[in-house]
Amino acid sequence: MKLAVGYPLIEDCDQPFVEVVRKFRAHIAEVYFAWPGDPSGRSVFGRAWDRFGTCSTGEGVDLAAQERLEADLRSFRSLGLKLDLLLNANCYGPLAASPELLGHALSVVGRLGSEMGLDIVTTTSPFIAAALKQRFPGLCLRASVNMRIGSAQGMSYVADCFDSFHLQRDHNRDLARIGEVSDWCRRNGKELCLLANSGCLAFCSGQTFHDNLVAHEHELSEVVPSEALVCRRYLRDRENWAALLQATWIRPEDLGHYGEHFAIAKLATRMHSNPGRVIGAYVSGRFAGNLLDLLEPGYSDLLQGCVLDNTKFPPDWHERVTSCQRECEGCSYCGEVLEAVLMRV
């Protein structure tokens, strides 16, 4: 199992991302990125466009950001890495099934394909996927984790559009389901991927709302208050902190258990100020520090001066959380582990 790492949106990272990737090249297979100005599953990279080609600020896309990205993509390609373009906004508004959106997608994919040899497009849109599959038959189309496809049946509905699937992250600890989906993928010539370090709450009831906010971030006139986000409102209460352990992340120490089923482990690094720390931890399979520092989002600011000491997790952690069927009501295990790993700094 190899890693897919995300091109950072944060410019003041601790070291150039190309050098981070070069350092861990033997363990990385793919770099994923969004095209400047396009909405995606995270904040817009470069300046935002209201309608692909008409910038809302009137200033156009950030050419310096685009030139930097293109230079870095060529560096990644020279290292033999696959390039994965994200067209994974949760919502495209009135453009969602438009010729305009499709034309933009075909243009960007065609340019990157001819100039850099684009390998993969990850999208939330079956509309985009079907069109790209027809126009670029050699391109790998991957279903975004934001589609929340968590079963073989769900994958079968769009098997004609997608060659590869991210498993719904909420099932990362359901080994029986993983085995079933993995078997289906093998029988049908599909590739299965996981997202290893999401900090999102499991089965979050606010995910669709939050993903839609992110997709329209460039159109919002006000900063989104924390009260609008289910996770941050919920975790302000100390009594709810066990939900941090009931989430979907996989510790670096446990990632090796998944290699039988997954070809790619995706690491969320696009919004991280120190992506090298995240990649290094999962490459080495161990981390001595605050577990939340590896996650996106991390919520450290909500823990009132406390951290989750990754070295304090019990030896049976992986076995217990992958065999409990998430019957959290009436179970005290994660709460007990929380008290063991929660340290004041």
Descriptive tags:
345 residues, alpha/beta, TIM Barrel, eight-stranded parallel barrel, two-stranded antiparallel sheet, 14% strand, globular
The CATH homologous superfamily is called Phosphatidylinositol (PI) phosphodiesterase
Distance between the termini: 35 Å
Question: How helical, in percent, are the residues?
Answer: 25-40%
Mean pLDDT: 91
**Percent of sequence in beta strands:** 5-15%
Compressed to H and E, one letter per element, the order equals: EHEEEHEHEHEHEHEHHEHEHHE
Q: Would you report the number of β strands? A: 12
Q: Tell me the CATH topology.
A: TIM Barrel
CATH class: Alpha Beta
| Main sheet: strands, sense, barrel | 8 strands, parallel, barrel
Count every helix, treating DSSP H or I runs of 4 or more residues as helices.
Answer: 11
> Which runs of at least 5 residues are low in confidence (pLDDT < 50)?
48-59
CATH architecture: Alpha-Beta Barrel
Q: How many domains, in number, for the residues?
A: 1
Shape: globular
Quaternary organisation of the protein chains:
single chain
Q: How large is the radius of gyration?
A: 20 Å
| Strand order across the largest sheet | 1-2-5-6-7-8-9-10
**Based on helices, strands and strand pairing, what is the structural class?**
alpha/beta
Give the secondary structure arrangement, pairings included.
Layout: E1 2-6, H1 17-23, E2 28-34, E3 49-51, E4 54-55, H2 63-78, E5 82-87, H3 99-116, E6 120-123, H4 126-135, E7 140-143, H5 152-157, E8 164-166, H6 175-187, E9 191-195, H7 207-215, H8 230-235, E10 264-267, H9 275-284, E11 306-308, H10 317-321, H11 333-341, E12 342-344
